[in-house]
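Quick start: load a record and inspect it. Here is Membrane metalloprotease:
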Amino acid sequence: MIKRNKIVSGLILLLVLGTACSKSDDNSEEAAALVTVNNKRATGSSSRDLLSDVKFKSMVIELVYVTGFEPSAAAINNLVAFIEARTFKPGGITVLKKEIPSPAKSMYTTAEIAAIEDANRTKYNNGTEIAVWAYFSDGASAENEGNSVVLGTAYRNTSFVIFENTIRRNTSSNPLSNTRSLLETTVMEHEFRHILGLTNLGATLQSDHEDPANAKHCVVNDCLMYFSSEMQVGIGAMAAAGRVPQLDAQCIADLRANGGR
Ligand SMILES: [Zn+2]
Ligand SMILES: [Zn+2]
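Running the structure step on this input writes:
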């Protein structure tokens, strides 16, 4: 089964997985439908388009959050800096923030998250600009089980969700004030790396480093694309180090081989 990607936390961190041709057409409604379909493809399938500037020179990130669940400015800045460091977008990276009211559920399936995207997304690939949808939910993932708690899921080629409410529950008792933005940064960058094609998810492996026990994740245990088994420990170590885990050399090599920086 392929392949949704999610970070799972709790006492246990599970990192599970989870081009239409443009025709000339006089019917503008049909043309509009063709444009949106390019952003509804499988996770990882836009790896090269996101990494290189061959087709897309700039990127817009439509960052939508439920009222009260806006991510920290520091985490957004960290994500943009990460994208700038790993991709070629000479036309720049733009973040458009938008607030929406709560859909009023405590739990959401991936299909429900995708429906929220479909109802609220306004930015799709357009000309030489590629569009990404990032959604910050007020509810929990319906896939949570016991101590296995999903923090984020990359579920389409240019779409991911962050379960911001769950992140806050996991960090609210931590005395270090920047723990939440560190965890937001970690989950956002992890999910973004999945849509960039890691690991073996659109960016072809340049060396044998996919974790055989945890598909689409890296076998290097200090790489962020590693499937870690203890989220609380992971959060503690991250907070103590005061930084987000970095990509290891093998994951960077995969991105470079597929058009990245
Ligand atoms: Zn993952
Ligand atoms: Zn790696």
